Amino acid sequence: MSGPLITFDNVTVTFDGRHVLDNVSLKLERNKIMTLVGPNGAGKSTLVKTVIGLNKPSTGTVWRMPKLRIGYVPQKLKLNDTLPLMVNRFLLLCQNATNKTVKEALELVDASHLQNANMHTLSGGELQRVLLANAVLKQPDLLVLDEPVQASM
Length: 153
Hints:
Helix content is 25%, strand content 25%. By secondary structure, it is α+β, with helices and mostly antiparallel strands. It has two domains: 4-68, 3-Layer(aba) Sandwich (Rossmann fold), CATH 3.40.50.300; 72-152, Rossmann fold, CATH 3.40.50.300. The strands form two sheets. Strands 2-1-3 form a three-stranded antiparallel beta sheet, with helices on one face. The protein has a two-stranded parallel ribbon with strand order 4-5. Helix 3 crosses helix 4 (124-137). The longest helix is centred in the last third of the chain and has 14 residues, at 124-137. The protein is globular. The termini are far apart.
């Protein structure tokens, strides 16, 4: 397939009357890497959440390739402390995941040793690896990482 995966045309996102994104236009292309750099509060996470469809633009248009598969690694993940959840079970929650594909995804992110670990006891870096494994399990057309090294510093 050719052409952009996602196109923003003059997108503005407003929260409480304040423009967080203001007239942003961009194209996300297949097999390209885009890096967002800026100070805290610049709107990077808002842009990411708009790309994946969690935020809706106040004005402008967002076009996504039909049947676009997005793998997303959030900055943080909040789990209910009372819910026992092992890494393997968490990854099997991904649509179409199998024990074989979970094993392969964990190997890809160098986290095979975490397969039977409790999600609640993972370090920040270990959790990031598990979340990345979860994202690649979707076999995404677009992989979106929101501050992927934050927890490993």
